[in-house]
UniProtKB/TrEMBL annotation:
Protein name: GAF domain-containing protein
A Pfam family that the UniProt record links to this protein: GAF
Tree of life domain: Bacteria
Family: Belongs to the CdaR family.
Protein source organism: Paractinoplanes aksuensis
Length: 556
């Protein structure tokens, strides 16, 4: 058995490429699933593998593709011992549990596991002692499982399960591709049966069939549609709005047709508005183009999936400060097209829906020249951008606001990093700058150290404990007083400083009378032994009041 630690990147990339090639030609779904099963067996050293798909009533799982399993075993399981999802009087099979729970289920030893007894006969007949069942999803809906078997007892580790999940994703892509082809065939059939425009329907059919068969990409779809309609065509990615293809002058505010993949809108095809409604056949041509465009987007996603995973690993290792990750980060980044001997800035997005933000960030990074990388660290979305990234950070913020990501998401940009050792600190401070921008209500602009005033200066400090110590020592008298009497002297002083020493504005923010503000300020001055009318005192108080905010932001 080959352990995942020994799995090399090249064989996996070649295997993914082979699967993508199979998806690009009109291969049957069982053929592609056989290839997936053989790929899992070959790369991970398993004895048998199979892909089981749910039947139409969604009551049982049927072996649809396999490698190493005998035809008799497949026939016997499908006909006499089907994997029933909800059996009446028997326990659920491992495949049923994986399908229904959406998580992998393994049996390290079928003989030692008493719950596997109902399936022990077929296991002995086929000759396996361990198995794992990994759920397969298509457009977010469970559609089957990827099952792998070994002749000897075996514990399937986390790395193996991760790699099997990647292959299960490819199985989901194959199923979605088959469905798209069915939709495409239905659209073509509808076009070709239009009695009033048979020749035109054949032309549409021919154009888009050629695009689909040669894998012409989104640009090929746009070119074919432009030729058919005799007009400009623009294809925009969703939700980022980044142009994927344009023929003729870019169309921004025109008639849009949505490109849907499963339940997700992935793009918009936009053509100029006309005084009269489009002809019925032109509308069908747009619908057909949307179907083929969805197939091309799916192909592109398949090709990018491995690159996105590798990019995310490089970003995480480089910015999280992993000593082991930093050793190989430059080399791995180089294989993705980044030369880390040159300066790169760190753009951090803190807060907001990370999945949508990451989609927009990836779209921007994919179009960057020189190359940029996008990834996620926890709930933060991070980009490595060549040199001065201020304008790109502004563009990212604009696109986030355009898709409805509100002020809960703040964008910050660091100065360019000159060495690998600079990146963890740049990320840490950038995250702090974004966090402070959100706390101060200034997330409508890109944050940088210079834009945050005293907060930005304090972010340059590495010692969080020193910041807290300074704040604690400076503000100790009023904090002790507040704790003992339940007053709000520190809160009032913070509001007074943040509202530019305006008593009325401070009172309005705290919902108290201005006289109350004045009394609290006098008491705070008495306890601290200072006067807020002195510039030096105000400066020290502002630093002390800001220190805790900065320390919280730096404590990643």
């Amino acid at each position: 058995m080959q352990t995942t630690g020994a799995v090399q990147l090249r064989p996996w990339l070649e295997a993914i490429a082979a699967i993508a090639t199979a998806l690009n030609r009109p291969a049957s779904l069982p053929e592609v699933l056989d290839l997936l099963s053989a790929t899992a067996s070959r790369l991970l050293g398993y004895d048998f593998c199979a892909v089981l798909l749910v039947d139409e009533p969604r009551s049982k799982l049927v072996i649809t593709g396999a490698h190493g399993l005998s035809p008799r075993y497949i026939e016997q399981v499908n006909a006499d011992h089907p994997v029933v999802l909800e059996p009446d009087d028997e326990p659920r099979a491992p495949s049923s549990r994986a399908f229904l729970t959406g998580t992998s289920v393994q049996v390290p030893d079928t003989v030692a596991d008493a719950t596997f007894l109902p399936w022990g006969g077929v296991a002995r007949q086929q000759g396996y002692r361990s198995m794992i069942s990994v759920p397969v999803f298509s457009a977010g809906i469970p559609v089957g499982t990827l099952n792998c078997y070994t002749r000897m007892p075996h514990e399937f580790g986390p790395d193996e399960q991760e790699l099997l999940s990647l292959l299960a994703d490819q199985a989901g892509v194959a199923i979605e591709t088959a469905r798209l082809r069915e939709r495409e065939a239905a659209t073509i059939a509808s076009l070709t049966t239009a009695n009033t425009a048979l020749r035109r329907g054949e032309e549409v059919h021919g154009q888009f069939t050629r695009v689909a068969l040669r894998g012409g990409g989104v640009a090929g779809v746009a070119a074919a549609l432009s030729e058919l309609l005799g007009t400009a065509v623009t294809v925009l990615e969703e939700p980022s709005g980044v142009p994927l293809a344009a023929v003729g002058d870019p169309v921004e505010d025109g008639q849009a047709t949505l490109v849907v993949l499963g339940n997700e809108t992935v793009a918009r095809i936009v053509v100029p508005r006309t005084a009269s409604p489009l002809a019925a056949l032109d509308v069908r041509a747009l619908e057909h183009a949307a179907t083929v465009c969805a197939l091309e987007v799916l192909r592109a996603r398949t090709a990018h999936e491995v690159e996105w995973r590798l990019s995310g690993e490089v970003v995480s290792d480089l910015l999280a400060g992993s000593a082991a990750g930093l050793v190989t980060a430059a080399e791995r980044a180089g294989r993705l097209g980044l030369d880390l001997t040159k300066p790169y800035a760190v753009i951090v997005v803190n807060g907001g829906p990370s999945a949508r933000i990451l989609s927009v960030a990836r779209s921007l990074a994919a179009a960057a020249q020189p190359r940029a990388l996008a990834g996620a660290i926890g709930d933060d979305v991070v980009l490595l951008w060549p040199a001065d990234a201020g304008s790109q950070a502004e563009r990212l913020l604009t696109q986030l606001r355009r898709i409805g990501v509100g002020p809960e998401a703040a964008v910050a940009v660091s100065p360019p990093c000159q060495a690998l050792a600079d990146y963890p600190s740049a990320y840490r401070r950038g995250r702090g700058a974004a966090t402070i921008a959100r706390l101060r209500g200034t997330a409508d602009a890109v944050a940088s150290f210079g834009s945050l005033g005293v907060h930005g200066l304090l972010l340059q400090l590495q010692d969080v404990a020193e910041l807290r110590r300074f704040a604690a020592e400076t503000l100790a008298p009023i904090r002790t007083y507040d704790a003992a009497r339940g007053t709000a002297l520190e809160q009032t002083l913070r509001a007074y400083v943040s509202h530019d020493l305006n008593t009325a504005a401070t009172a309005a923010a705290l919902f108290v009378h201005p006289n109350t503000v004045n009394l609290r300020l006098r008491k705070a001055e008495q306890l601290l032994g200072v006067s807020t009318s002195q510039v030096r005192v105000l400066a020290e108080l502002q630093v002390a009041l800001s220190a805790d905010d900065v320390a919280d932001a730096l404590a990643v």
